[in-house]
Write a structure and sequence with these properties.
Elements lengths: L11 H11 L3 H10 L5 H13 L3 H14 L12 H11 L3 H17 L1 H6 L3 H9 L6
Helix pairs in contact: 1-2, 1-3, 3-4, 4-8
Amino acid sequence: MIKLCKHDNLGIRYILMGLYCILEDFKKFEKIYKKYNYDCMENNLVFAFYNFKKSDYITAKEYILKLKKQNPFLLLLATDSQLEKNLNRIDEKFLDENTMDIYMEESINFFLEYNFIFDNIPGFIKFISNVYNNKKIF
């Protein structure tokens, strides 16, 4: 798909980078990342994932914190198995309904699209949870 559409307006690169991390094909990951290196949530997630896989937990933490800054509730959905409980926590923390709706929709869509990353790496969700809750990462 990327060969057919050089600008990758479909976002295939994020899925490919996630899959390359799961397969530990870091050379292909790095090739795509260098070509499409933008500061966006998707890149920050896959780069956190990449660094986590390579045991560079300090850099992975930096990218998780970037994600948290871009959308404070984005990965809150991934940090606990009780989705409903997390949605209620989001509700309590946000006062502006319009902003909450935007963050909420973005968070749910993002989590659903990239859940293959969360599901395939043991310890990644726990790592995110520790970063989000300012706990020791390991």
